[in-house]
Amino acid sequence: MRSTVAFVLLAIVLCGPRSLIAHHSIAGEFDPSKPVTLKGQVTKIEWTNPHARIYVDVAQPNGSVVNWNIELAAVSALARNGWTRSALKVGDTVTVDGIHARSGAPIANARSVVLPDGRKVFSGAADQ
Amino acid sequence: MRTFFLLSAVLAATTLVLPAQAPGQNPSSISTQRRAGPPVGPVPRLPDGTVDLSGVWVGGGPINDIEREGGLPPGELDRLLLPSAKAIMAGRDVTQEPHNRCLPMGVPRTTPFPFRMVQTPTHKAATHIFILQEGNIHSYRQVFMDGRKHPPDPDPTWYGHSIGWWEKDTLVIDTVGYNDKFWFDRRGTPHTEQLHTIERWTRLDLGRMENKVTIDDPGAFSKPFTVTFMATLSPPGDELMEYICQENNQYGVHTIPGFNPLTGETKK
Question: Is the peptide bond before B108 cis (omega within 30 degrees of 0)?
Fold first, then answer.
């Protein structure tokens, strides 16, 4: 058992964080080989299942704004790790690292959501 | 790419029973398991000596791959699948599985979210056991414990007609009357309306419960086979939470039909 734990932990480190378990297969919809980094203001928070979502206005180089749909874990998973819907507010500026939808639409599956002061939200347990 | 998915499947299976994560886990994949492992202790019993199945449990069934997660050697199901069933499986678009549309997952599939076994005792013994499932359709399975037999011609349903009884400390659940619409796993392993499942649930100790499932479907497989899964008890204080899959299900809106993440190919 100990070697299995070590193997899995090593594998998690080597693979990088991935959404291994979801109500659907993440890799069916999102492309792990297409990372995106998005910075902008939160315009909407959907505290819902099967995925909580935040929507972020991201400024483009040409001055236009694209509203991105960012997929998070299920509400029950977030809640069991101590997160509540008040962790983020509409208007907060966030930097999101994620992977892009295969269709090319402005949708990403989030790997991290970071506030300007460096705090990570919705990642691990809330008391970290 | 294939290695990634193989690894993912293994991790998906084992992560369910492991203590939780390194710090900085990404926010789209937080597990429902928390830091402590399952509690240790003897099997709890009801006043009449029956095993008490109470608790909030996680696991106990396949998610991604019934063959791998059920402990079968690789390729075993391919050897057992009848040609007609193989054809059905090959024709399935894994991005369009019913589970993604919030349709029932059937038996013995599970989700990363917990379930409760609820025994309903009368002054004699439990007449029903309900399995309350947080994930998927957030509903229940009903197991009749009063000694009745299956009806002779049940209407096919997603969860079938379940009767249960105790064999010493093992709860046996015998189910027929399934429809053929749910998928055993994300791979699309199929079955027919001839499916007959026999689950043997044994609480090994306070924190672990084994589910040994015999799949007997002469319409899809050349012989019955048995797959084994483990459920672990959630930390104390955990309760089922509401999970309404349909409230904001955006899956499938932007997927590419026919895309198979296991091969990277898109079927036309």
Answer: yes
Listed by start position, the domains of chain B span: 2-18+36-234
Architecture of domain A2-121: Beta Barrel (2.40)
pLDDT digits (tens, 9 = 90+) for B29-86: 776 545 567 888 999 999 889 999 999 999 999 999 999 999 999 999 999 999 999 9
**Contact flag A103-B7 (C-beta cutoff 8 Å):** no
Q: Are the Cβ atoms of B241 and A79 closer than 8 angstroms?
A: yes
A117 contacts: CB under 8 Å, gap ≥ 6: none
Distance from CA of B206 to the nearest CA of A (A): 19
In tens, the pLDDT along A99-123 reads 999 889 999 999 999 999 999 998 8
**Chain A residue with Cα closest to B20:** A124
The predicted model scores a pTM of 0.83
